[in-house]
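Subject: Re: docking follow-up (zinc ion)

Dear J.,

Thanks for your patience while I sorted out the input files. As discussed at Tuesday's group meeting, I've set up the holo structure prediction with zinc ion included as the bound ligand rather than trying to dock it afterwards. The sequence and the ligand SMILES I used are pasted below, so you can double-check that they match what you have on your end before we go further.
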Amino acid sequence: MRTKYALAALALSAATATTQAATTINIHRGDRDTVSTKTHIIVGSTTPGNTVTINGNKTHVYKTGAFGAELPLEHGDNPISIAACDGNTSSETRLNVFRKETTADSKNRPAPYVQETAIAPTPVLTLPDAYLQYGNGDDRLGGSKMGYLADGIPLKVIAETEDLYKVELSQNRTAYIPKRLTSPTDLQPRQANTGSWSLTNTGNRDRVSISLPHRMPYRSWIQPDPTTIHIEIFGATNNSNWITQRGDLGMIEYADCRQTDSDVLEIVIKLKEEHSWGYSVGYTGNNLTIEVKHTPRLSLKHLTIGLDAGHGGEYPGATSATGLKESEINLDIIMRIRDLLIKKGAKTVLSRDGDYSPTMAQRKQTFTDSDVDLMISLHNNSGGSPLKEMGTSTYYKHISNRELASCLLDRMLELGLKNFGLTGNFNFSLNAPTEYPNALIEVLFMSSLPEEEKLADPDFRQKVAEQTVRGIEDYIGKVRHSVTNRKR
Ligand SMILES: [Zn+2]
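The structure tokens for the complex came back this morning:
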């Protein structure tokens, strides 16, 4: 079934062409009556090989059949004539774009303030997949996440917006949680002393266990130089007289704690290695449990790689000028990466292997359930100018994943692509997990005509897959180098 996806996207545009006249013109963008801009971008498609003129000027036609131009506009009516010719017959499409006078600049308005309503303190309980966000703002990826929370934690609600509760974590710290991720409760959040600690080696992880009288909210982050994991427990006061540390830990050098506010306890876990292979924070009963993964054997033969093809099913993502779907291009490249990794002896776990769309929570669950060592999510971008190359880019959220994202970008750039950049603190759901190193690749822009031409080419998609695997190997090589240096 895989070959179906490898070529489905290309078959789509070919099929369209054969059922219509050879000189058919489809307008993908710019078919608008009234605008207030000084120039206007037209993007369309015709049968590959045709010549196209716009207002009498010959326009480049890409191998996909796509074409585009940016036209200057006069005030008032701007007639536009687009003609396609296959050598024998020709056809013409006429548009009229009306340029109106510009009114006040609407682009510089501040982001809307989200009105909150204070409410009498009320307890709620976290549900599975709960997370906290710093503010009540929103963007296309959701508000900036503070981190995920285990279920069954009572939180004190002090205000609300339409979709969010504002909760008080400690006397000086508030956060927001989507209402749908909470349920009513009688359990009151309250300040408490910590009990005994233990640190144990469970095989491929070290486990820190801190006993608490009830579940409390927390947040965690990782810091480089030296690599330390930090967990703040809100509402906790240090009352642990000893921290039992056994000598056989695989990744943790030591664990320590500091009372940073009268009701905030910070746990600091120093790692033996520079590179973290992930950690989880959750509860076992009322014990806060932090599991820190050991460095796996550093060769693809011993690693399980999670692969995520963006979108799918009823959510195709971006569609290009000639009708290529981002979901199909993403899956095609992911399948090529999978084949290359399997050839090198790696195990792979896919979040989807067909044209359907698991939710972000399901994708994350697939990867944590199969204990992947590393995860790559692959998308293609959209936006900017359709008439020029926009470039390739990689993304991470946690600073510990910067090096992985950077290794991947360096290999993509070897394909001669424009550099759209390395982006940190990125709020994409699949960059949020701390359980395994992860990065997002946005290969190119579906909306860019020269980049669509590249993405439509199976040879190019194969090269992208090869470079992704090289990028993963580069990262493993860097970890191996640093582990060897430490042992020297
Ligand atoms: Zn996408």
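A couple of observations from a first look. Residues 1-19 have pLDDT under 50 and may be disordered. The chain has four domains: 20-99, 117-184, 192-293, 300-480.

Let me know if you'd like me to rerun anything.

Best regards,
T.
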